[in-house]
Amino acid sequence: MESNYGADSIQVLEGLEAVRKRPAMYIGDIGFKGLHHLVYEVVDNSIDEALAGYCKNIEVTINPDNSVTVRDDGRGIPVAMHLKEKRSALEVVMTVLHAGGKFDKDSYKVSGGLHGVGVSCVNALSILLKAEVERDGHLYVQEYSQGKPLYAVKEIGKSDRRGTTVTFKPDAEIFTVTKYNYDTLAARLRELSYLNRGIRITLTDQREQQDNGEFLFDEFYSEGGLTEFVAYLDSTRQAITNTVYMEKERDMIQVEVAFQYNTTFNENVHSYVNNINTIEGGTHVAGFRRALTRTFKSYGDKNNMFTKMKVEVTGDDFREGLTALVSIKVPEPQFEGQTKTKLGNSEVLGVVDTIVGEALNNFLEENPKEAKIIIEKVCLAASARHAARKAREMVQRKNALGGSGLPGKLADCSSKDPELSELFLVEGDSAGGTAKQGRNREFQAILPLRGKILNVEKAMEHKIYDNEEIKNIFQALGVFHNENKELNTDKLRYKKVVIMCDADVDGSHIVTLILTFFFRQMKALIESGCIYVAAPPLYLVKRGKQFQYCWNEEDREAAVRRFAGESGDTSKVDIQRYKGLGEMNAEQLWETTMDPQVRTLRQVTIDSAAEADRIFAMLMGDDVPPRREFIESHAKYAKIDV
C-alpha cells in the first residue's frame, strides 16, 4: 500500500487566495482560538498518517520564540514532481488549499483533516514556515513566508529516518494573540491520544524552565483508549458501574463507544467523527441514545423493574449521571454547515444503533447486578424529573401571572432589541446599586445577585428551580427549558450577559458558580457567544490629580515608576487596591468596567467540551484532593490577597 502514496496521490482542488485577507473564514477567528487551531491542523496531518498505520510518534514543541514544531514518524510528504502542477508535491501541499493525499482513498481510508483548512492555510498565516521531509533515505527542506516559497524544495542531506517536521511562526500582522497556552494544547493532544490508542504524543514548552531546570513536558499515550478517557473524565465523580466498552466495524463505519454511570445528575455525552469533536452531536449520537433507551427500557420491562413507577420513564432518565464517549470513523463524513459540529450521514444512525444495542443487551444479561443499579438510578431520575417539571412550571407560571414576569431586583434597560441589550449579573446589592447609577440605561440592565448562588453541579434539577437567584436569572433572560431539557432561546432578552464580580477570591468563586450554572443549564448561550466576564481594575494609582487604573501587577509597577518620575520618589504615589466593586463610585465603575468604548470583557467559549466537563466536575464536585492539586498547580496565575 505504501508504494501507492506518491506524488500523483496529491490532488489539487483549489488555490490559496483570500486566506490572508479573510483568515477568520478559515480558522474561526484571529484571536486565541484561531491561533491554537493552527497547531491542530498540523497535528491532524500526523494523526491521519497514524490512522493509515504509518505513524506511532508525534512530537509537539513550543519554541522559545513562540513558534511551534510538529514532528512525526510517518511516511513523509512526497517531494517528487507533481505532474499537473509541474512542481514538487511538497510545495503543492504547502501552498494550495485543499491539496493533499486525503482525497485519494488508496492513501487514506479515513481522515479528519479533509474538512479542515489544511497545512497550506497554516502556511499562509505564518510569517515563516519550514517543512522538512525525511523520506527514502534523504532529507529535504523548503521554507516559506506568508504562504510563498522562499526557494525550491532541496535535498540537504541523508537520513535513515522517515517523517515530516513542520515549524511555523504565526504572523503577528494577522493574529491579535501570538502567545500559545500550554494547557490548551495539552488538552487537545491528550484527547487525541485517547481517541487513537497506541499513538505516543509529546508536548514540550521551551519558553521557560521550571524550578528543576527542566522544560515543561507531557507525554500522552493510551492503551485503553476510550475506556481510559471515561475514567479520566469521571476521575472526580463517584462511579456506580464499571465502564461498558464496545467496538465494531460495519459497512466501513468504525464504531467505538465507552460509558459508565456516576452519582451526579448531569448527562455528559461527548462525540467524535474522525477525531473531530462534534459538539452538536448528529446521527451517531442519535443512534447511541436510541439504542440506550430502547435496550434499557426493554430490559426493565422484561424484568418488571418499572411496575412501581408512578410516572412514565423517558429517554432523558436513562442518561442522567451518564458519562459517554461515542467515536466513529467514516470514509465520507457529511457535516451540517462549515463548522464540523454536527454529523449528517443518515446511514450512521442505524449502524451505531445496531452495534450499541447488541453490545448493551449482552452487557445487561451478563451483569444483572449492575443492570439493577442503573435501572434504580433511572427510576430515581424519572421521579426527580417529574418534580423538576413542576418547579419549572411554577417559574414559568410566575412569569405569566406577573405581568412582565421580570424579577423585582432587575433594573431593565429601555431598549427592547436583544442584539443591542446587555444584562450585568452583579455580585451583591451594594455593587448592584453602584452599577445601576453608572450604567447606560438605554441598553444596559442590572440584576444584583445575593451572595453565592446554588452550586448546580451537586444539586438535583428541582432544587435548581427552587433557588431564588437562579429563578431570577431565568426570568430576567426570558428563557426556559422545554420537556426535552432543550433551552428555548426564542425569547432571549439580552444577547450579551456579563458576569461582574469583585476582583478577590470570593468574587472568583462566585464567577465560577455562575459559569457552572451556565455550562450545565444554559450551555447554548455559551456556544452562541452570549456569556462574558467583566474585568474590573485591580488598582488605582494616583499622584496629585494624575491617576491611572491598572489591571495587573505589571501595569501597577509601570504606573508607579511613571508617577515617581526621574527622582524615583514613590512616597507621594498612592496605590488603592480594589477588592470589591463597591469600592468604586458609579463614575469609576462606568469608565473602567462598563463603558463599551474602553472596557475589557472576556468572552466565555468552550474549546473542549470534554475537558470543560471534567474541570467543572473537579472544581465544583465533592472530591477535594484533585481540586486542591489543581489550585496549587495553577496558583502562580492567581493574585491572592492575604
Verbal overview:
With 642 residues, the protein is of the alpha+beta class. The protein has 4 domains: 219 residues, Heat Shock Protein 90, CATH 3.30.565.10; 159 residues, Ribosomal Protein S5, domain 2, CATH 3.30.230.10; 137 residues, 3-Layer(aba) Sandwich (Rossmann fold), CATH 3.40.50.670; 56 residues, 2-Layer Sandwich (Dna Ligase, domain 1), CATH 3.30.1490. The protein has 18 helices and 28 strands. Strands 2, 3, 7, 8, 9, 10, 11, 12 and 13 form a 9-stranded mixed beta sheet that branches. Strands 14-15-18-16-17 form a 5-stranded mixed beta sheet, sandwiched between helices. Strand 12 and strand 13 form a beta hairpin. The longest helix has 34 residues. The C terminus is likely disordered.
Brief digest:
With 642 residues, the protein is an alpha+beta fold.
Outline the fold blueprint.
Layout: E1 11-12, H1 24-27, H2 32-51, E2 57-62, E3 68-72, E4 81-82, E5 87-88, H3 89-95, E6 99-100, H4 119-124, E7 126-135, E8 138-145, E9 148-149, E10 154-158, E11 163-170, H5 182-195, E12 200-209, E13 215-220, H6 226-233, E14 244-250, E15 253-261, E16 268-273, E17 276-277, H7 283-302, E18 322-329, H8 346-366, H9 368-401, E19 422-427, H10 429-438, E20 444-449, H11 461-466, H12 468-477, E21 480-481, E22 487-488, E23 496-500, H13 505-521, H14 523-527, E24 531-534, E25 539-543, E26 546-550, H15 553-564, E27 574-577, H16 586-594, E28 601-603, H17 609-620, H18 624-633
Parallel strand pairs: 2-12, 16-18, 19-20, 19-23, 23-24
Antiparallel strand pairs: 1-6, 2-3, 3-11, 4-5, 7-8, 7-11, 8-9, 8-10, 12-13, 14-15, 15-18, 16-17, 21-22, 24-28, 25-26, 25-27
Helix pairs in contact: 2-5, 7-8, 10-16
